[in-house]
Amino acid sequence: MTSSSEYGSNSWELKVIVDHQHEEVQKEFTLQVSGDLHVGGVMLKLVERIKIPQDWSDYALWWEQKKCWLLKTHWSLDKCGVQADAKLFFTTQHKMLRLRLPNMKTVRLKVSFSSVVFKAVSDICKILNIRRSEELSLLRQSEDALKKKKKKDKNSKDSEDVLNLCNSPVTSGSTASPGLYSKTMTPTYDPVSGTPASSTMTWFSDSPLTEQNCSVLAFSHPNCSPETLAEMYQPRTLADKAKLNAGWLDSSRSLMEQGILEDDQLLLRFKYYTFFDLNPKYDAVRINQIYEQARWAILLEEIDCTEEEMLIFAALQYHVSKLSLSSEAQNFTCESEADEVEAALSNLEVTLQGGKATNILEDITDIPKLADNLRLLRPKKLALKSFKQYWFVFKDTSISYFKNQESGQGEPIEKLNLKGCEVVPDVNVAGKKFGIKLLIPVADGMNEVYLRCDNENQYAQWMAACILASKGKTMADSSYHPEVHKILSFLKLKNWTVSSQAVSEPEGMDMKPECFVSLRYIKKYKPKQLAARILEAHQNVAQMSLVEAKLRFIQTWQSLPEFGLSYYVVRFKGSKKDDLLGVSYNRLIRIDATTGDPITTWRFSNMKQWNVNWEIRQVAIEFDQNVSIAFTCLSADCKIIHEYIGGYIFLSTRSKDQNEALDEDLFHKLTGGQE
């Protein structure tokens, strides 16, 4: 031990515990230091004392009490605030982590526990070959889901199948592997079937993704049994759904700072529902994982859908699993299919344009209008519900209605402005019901109006006009016709006929229908009935290629009214009761916690600024026209909602002509919020 006189009187003892990977026990060392010694000097001293020759480059100092890394090696101990009572650990920055992917498979890989989560997720996605990592994040499992899992683990002895990807330290700043971020790379996937092309399978020289591993990630594997489904956590209420969103990690802090330990399990999920630039050439893994996340959301009833929609989802799943198992999936190479996939993708882009302003200058004189007889219902508490016919005119972003066509030139009975309204389909194709439910914002909440159309074509035109108007766009916008086309193609999917030929399909005999629907429908129908109905719906999708079926599944999911809504329990300023807040890619919705009805909608496009008062944990947002709201979050930390809103604003700044490098500083600026 060196005498303190060598260091002068201001030296003191610092205890450092070395977390040595190859030894079970941690060793504690006492170093004689002074406040002006920099962090790098402490590490150097320590390594000299340990006397074990090895590569220490991944090691850094972790300050346990303050839950922070000392990564600025040029900072002095005084500047860091480290004194003699500090307990420091000398430990690796990259550690093993278990990740449960959207397809419910678990992978184990090495992740940086010292980088902020935004960067760690980017590294994880490089290993897994998923582009656009900014759409994903890490989620802690909810308490309820964990309780259910513990119960299941007691009953079952089978150990989970974990895919080990641990031979891949993707080190931060490593430039050796451009991976799929290299623009000149030859397509890694068969552009048509979306299946991995073996010759270019491994993108990085050090990638652990062998072909077999990649197929686990890029293919959908045979489905689970109702028993497995019953053992998984299913949210029953909107408050349950809110619990699912409480566990998102803070993107601007590291895993270690958030209490995550080596070999813990987290969920990797698509957090932001704006899937940008999906491309089957490069995105087999990404498309499959989005498809899987959508599939499980449907099966576990995390999102509501009608019975008709459930059967479409079932038919598409059945089709995907059939193709995934067959060898033909490897050999699709026909031109027309490539075109169909292109069309499906451009449709998907339309769906996702969301709240972005288009650059098309609308010529006011040239804005198309719709005029037709429709039926209208305004629900009144005690009145009998009957629809009444009126003459409707849709112009700009509003609907006016008149007693009949002759009085169409005069004053309307009422004019409904649809900007900022919620548009909900109210359709049953088999029952020839083509309805549109409008929730129109008024001073004290939402007015409900139901429109009823006569046929598919009329419905598609009016529905598309309503959807655009809700975003403040008119029918002159370039996305109007693709939107009409998309709605018609959904209706076509739902329009199947009962035919004896479908039911007698030989391969349908061994279908396990209970793998493709949620528990509610397993209880409602006998397996044979269910199989017959799925096969009827399957006729409309039987010709699709594998990647097209997955994209169609994703699109159908996106067309559900609840799509992309993440719920939080909040208390609005001045309110005496709790409400739910739905956060979506283009708006916030205040929802009545007891009835589930929307009360008010605020669009991001009208948002001027938002901030958090960290002392009282209150989020305050200002919109155009002097509208301002403030709320505290009860089901999660308010930082999570703050980051969600900022994240969506950040993602809306992406454009196709940018290269894929992201402005990480802008992300942290929009989502960080200073505590």
Automatic annotation (TrEMBL):
It comes from the Eukaryota. Residues 375-471 form the PH domain. Keywords: Cell adhesion, Cell junction, Cell projection. Pfam families: FERM_M (PF00373), Kindlin_2_N (PF18124). One of its GO terms (cellular component) is cell projection. GO terms for biological process: cell-matrix adhesion; integrin-mediated signaling pathway. It is found in: Cell junction; Cell projection. Residues 147-179 are annotated as: Disordered. Residues 165-179 have a biased composition (Polar residues). GO terms for molecular function: integrin binding. PANTHER family: FERMITIN 2-RELATED (PTHR16160), FERMITIN FAMILY HOMOLOG 1 (PTHR16160:SF12). Belongs to the kindlin family. This is FERM1 protein. It comes from Nothoprocta pentlandii. The lineage of its organism: Eukaryota, Metazoa, Chordata, Craniata, Vertebrata. The gene is Fermt1.
